[in-house]
Amino acid sequence: MDRDAFRSQLRTFIAQNLLYSAETELDDSASLLASGLIDSTGAMELIAHVEATVDRTFDDSDLVASNFDSIDRIVAFAVPAEG
Amino acid sequence: MIWAIRHRGPDGFGIYRDQHAGLVHARLAIVDLAGGAQPLADQQGASWIVFNGEIFNHRQLRSELQGLGYQFHTASDTEVVVNAFDAWGMDCFGRFNGQWAFALWNRHDRRLLLSRDPTGICPLYVREHNGSVSFASEVKALLADPDAPRAFDPRGIDQTLTYWGAIAPITPYKGVEELRPGSYRLYTMAGRTDGMHWSPEYPPSIPQFRGSLDDASDELRRRLIIASQLRVSSADVPVAAYLSGGLDSSVIALLGHGASRGPFSTYSIRFDDEEFDEGFYQRMVVARLDSVHHELRVSRRDIAAAFPDAVWHAERPVLRTAAAPMFLLSKAVRESGVKAVLTGEGADEVLAGYDLFREARIRAFWARRPDSPVRPMLFDRIYPYLAHSTPRARGMVHAFWKVGLDQAGQPGFSHAPRWRSAAALKRFYAAPFSAAVAAAAPPDHLDSLPPSFSTWSSLSQAQYLELTTLLSPYILSSQGDRQLLANGVEGRFPFLDRDIIDFCNSLPDSYKLSGLNEKHVLKRMAADIVPREILERKKQPYRAPDAVCFFGSKAPDYVRDLMSERAVADSGVFEPRAVTALVSKMERLAADPIKPATTADNMAMVAILSVQLLRHHLLTTPPTPPAGQLAFDVDVSFLSDSSPEH
Questions:
Q1: pLDDT of B81-123, one tens digit each?
Q2: Count of pairs with CB atoms under 8 A, one residue in A, one in B
């Protein structure tokens, strides 16, 4: 899956499962934790979705805010730039 | 109006009326069963009172007043209140040790005094309209007036979705005010005066206790014994106890038993869900007490069935279902013939028992070295599941707690994670409701802190915020007084005795929260009273199964009806499609035992459903309880003096 497709799919997942609204705008750089959109249990739901989407299992040590606290960060971590 | 709150006082009714005022009372007879009927007048027939609650030191005050020449015609505490105000004016509140809400009307001066106890155990609501004033113990009595507005106050809803409760005087209802805990309000022909007669204070605003931990333990025991005795011996009916299986209720049940003259009853909730059940510990305390023990077993289905009643009585949005089992428990208590119970409520507030206080301490420690990978590991100490069951979650859990770490030392730092999680529910607001909230500009509680707040320790600051945002606005309102009196049972809370609060507030922080050991001095005090297992067990907050109760093949019909797009649109608070998406997701999860709902989704489901229930039952004409229309079949036991004034 390329980055743009992944980003689009991730945005849809967040809109449907965390925001519950396609109309609320969410900045791709906004902190999901600081906005209250995910708490500790919600974070696991999000991570499980990302793992299923990219068909990989992440190391526990990678499950940190610097990789999962915004759409931009998740995209950069889950679909690394080629080359 | 009185029919709407007859559950609070099913033992008798009384009415007073003159040219300018009317007082109506529904009585729960606990003190002076024969002579305590209300409304009650002073000796001259000038002042009339309706009074809810009890002044536990009324016998002592009666002696003092008799020394001043006052004569008494009943054995009730109500008459003590009337004469105490006559003798001491506003200073009388400082002499009361009790829980109360009352209205005192002087027909000669046309003066109305309203007052409420220090921590807001007994409720009191007011509505001003067209130059007149209505007041009642519950909102539903005010809404029984066909002319009352029937709409949510966006400020009250919005505060609830931050602090968990609307902060008095704001309520979730337009045109309805709540009298602040610890306050009074005086209406005279010249206008209205509001004042506080009590508010929490901490060192250095009050002198700090200078004794050792053992001294503090001895003093706490002495005061708790007195507080328990007052709450047992002042009643003319048997007083029982709630027993959760935790430290606080165990201590209170044991002390209450000691003060009781006859057989002592205890009542416990058992959950079918093992995760929430505390039966093992409850039975351990019962074995020591040798009490007449009653267990009420509660299933998810029971919770779903009782939830509309619990919300009807809470009269506010709730974020958890825990009110429903409390409603069922008080029903069982009343059916067994008991109408007063002791509970351990208040200990977590006055002795820093909640996890929130420990979380705040870890976050403050972490904030001094935000890059430390070791400091956040302390969360494992208060949440052992982090270290054992779900190691994968640890990184993001730590990330959750790290948000706002740079705000350490600022007011509200302790409560920011809780408030942030609740405030996330606002994303469900319908756009017009969001606009109404913005226009109404709900006050920020942090803007109304007392001047001395900044001089208190960070633990004291957190305790103050817990007392003022959660204890009365949520815990006592949704799970305490309202669920107890829903079935005519009065709760009595020794830890909320004024002498206990004042003493605990004076203690050094380390006597309350020693490192990460909560309620340190209480554990010391209880070491030779409660079983060791109770003392050493991990604190388990009272919780019940949440959103899962509302789904599955046995789900009650009202859930689907009230969460439908049409019903949600009709309420105007939440966005219908967002709620539909939430409900669809919860239905999917409920069918999958492997995937539990997240904390945030659980909270959203319960909060939205409770708002829908309030809209459907309370904001109708007239308010219509879930069980059906209440008939106006009140038998008035007597009519008071209604002669016109001269």
A1: 999 999 999 999 999 999 999 999 999 999 999 999 999 999 9
A2: 88
- Count of other CB atoms within 10 angstroms of residue B46: 14
Instruction: Give the CA angle between residues B575, B580, B581 to the nearest 5°.
Output: 100
Cβ pair A44:B394 closer than 8 A: no
Partner residue opposite A33 with nearest CB, options B393, B400, B427: B400
Predicted TM-score (pTM) of this structure: 0.93
Mutate to test the interface with A, among B383, B390, B400 (most CBs of A within 10 A): B400
Instruction: Please indicate whether, in this complex, the C-beta atoms of A63 and B402 are within 8 angstroms of each other.
Output: no
b/e per residue B167-198 (b: at least 16 CB within 10 A) = bbbbbbbbbbbbbbbbbbbbbeeeeeeeeebb
From chain B, the residues in CB contact with A57 under 8 A are none
Return the ∠ at Cα B306 (arms to B301 and B311), rounded to 5°. Answer: 135
Residue type, B493: F
- Chain A contact probe: residue of B377, B396, B588 with most A CBs at under 10 A: B396
Residue A35's SS3 state is coil
Which of A:33-72 have CB within 8 Å of B? Answer: 33-45, 47, 60-65, 68-69
pLDDT tier for residue B285 given thresholds of 50, 70 and 90? very high
B492: tokens are 């009595």
- Cα–Cα dist A53/B152, whole Å: 42
Give the separation between CA A44 and CA A39, rounded to whole angstroms: 9
- Tell me the average pLDDT of chain B: 91
- B28-32 contacts, C-beta under 8 A, 24 or more apart: B28/B339, B28/B485, B28/B488, B28/B490, B29/B237, B30/B54, B30/B235, B30/B236, B30/B237, B30/B339, B30/B340, B30/B490, B31/B58, B31/B75, B31/B76, B31/B77, B31/B234, B31/B235, B31/B236, B32/B74, B32/B75, B32/B76, B32/B77, B32/B236
